[in-house]
């Protein structure tokens, strides 16, 4: 049995479909089962939110692998980014280790680090540490998958590119050091399923000895290059205009709404999420990474 969080996200729904197609039994740990649509009759359901102090009874019964994908990029009405990424991940990993789960797969992010300039990447680094700690104490192997910006048509970054294309000029942060290697949600889902099926550790076929996989697409973009590239693929290209970062932050502060979009989300584009191993980890799993055109094809 596989316990899956984040099953309704762009990556999570793809992971769920692949697991079901391959005959796995899946229990989804989630807030709103209705968001699964017709899929909810094919899985077991356990109601849970990232702020719950305890898992529902029986959530880990019979589970041999946990796949933890839930983790918002910004604050929510229910809690801060740190609470929802770090505290929730520790609670789940600790409970899984105590229940004797054999493998914990955690979705982090490329660029995660204590010195990262955005809260999300600092939170993901802290989450990696607490999940790894829970695994070490409980004897539970942990695998970390760390993607760059994840792309799918109609999802987050593609949606913003389309929205900005409605303006005569598309603003981009001036002088931003941000770089990314956008990766297709389909490739990330394929990688996660491969990690689940191969099990934990290099002996099971994992590409790295530390259990951390970098999931990067084949092309690197600076933030000022990424928006035009996305808009070109989406056939909605507009001229870009460099805007000082502090002005974009002021605009984001004025427009932000809890749970929708805010300054923390904008800050991710100003960070380096390229990684160090390029596409090597995806290729080691037998995955040929898609470029922008194919990533946004569906």
TrEMBL record:
Domain NAD(P)-binding: 6-124
GO function terms (MF aspect): protein-containing complex binding
Listed Pfam families: NAD_binding_10
Gene3D superfamilies cross-referenced by the UniProt entry: NAD(P)-binding Rossmann-like Domain (3.40.50.720)
Highest taxon of the lineage: Bacteria
Protein name stated in the entry: NAD(P)-binding domain-containing protein
